[in-house]
Amino acid sequence: MAQSISRTHRKLKGAPDYDSPDFWDARFATGADVGEWLNSGEALIDAVVSDLESRPVITGRQPRVLHLGPGVSELGLKLRDACLERDWMGNGIVNVDFSGEAVRLGQEFESQKAPSEAMHWYRADLLAWDHVSDLSRYAPFDVILDKSTSDAIATAIDHHFNSKDDTSNLCPVIKDLLSTRDTISLSPVELLGLHLVPLTKKDTTWVVLSYSTFRFDSLPFLAEYWTLRSRTPLKAPSGIVSSNAYTPDTFHWVYVLDRK
Prior knowledge:
The protein is built from nine helices and nine strands.
């Protein structure tokens, strides 16, 4: 798999380096990031398992789940446990992260598991098709699990494509779009959604936890392939506050999208 991961575009002013693998490598290597982003993600596990249980047949009792940007979260481990409890194999779960350190730690842990239980780990930039296409060997996926990875990706800038440029390394979906127009501009989340199209099939489910109330709004190209089934508020964990202070409730959002 391609291992060179770099970006040449400028970072949005004031935004953290969430779209830099070096940022995450440093946090994971030093133990600065050992908690769970937003919340524990139990609602996501429930949504994924419910979706898998509703499917008429899981081929070989091996559900295929693509876990985007797991980092050092325990979410994937919880999903694997939920699969094993249902007599499903865990080796259909594919974790993909662009932090080499996260992937190293994940592979090291999984090397101790039986082959039928061991999850796969791959390093990839989800906005680079030559990386994403390497995941095709495990496609089509039944479910995509995304715990705030779309949020991190959203901090990158828009990507611009021109039909006159070399398109040989572009996603087939992007090529199709360029066949009917000279240029297109895609937000990073929209580009992610289009990159997921060749890895999925009709009725694949994309389950997302986000802090944003409008993460998938106004993305016309993404909407050609993905339908928003639901957007459910989830009360965010509260921090430590004074007993006399009024703190309004804040919410995260669980999105469920279906592949057309």
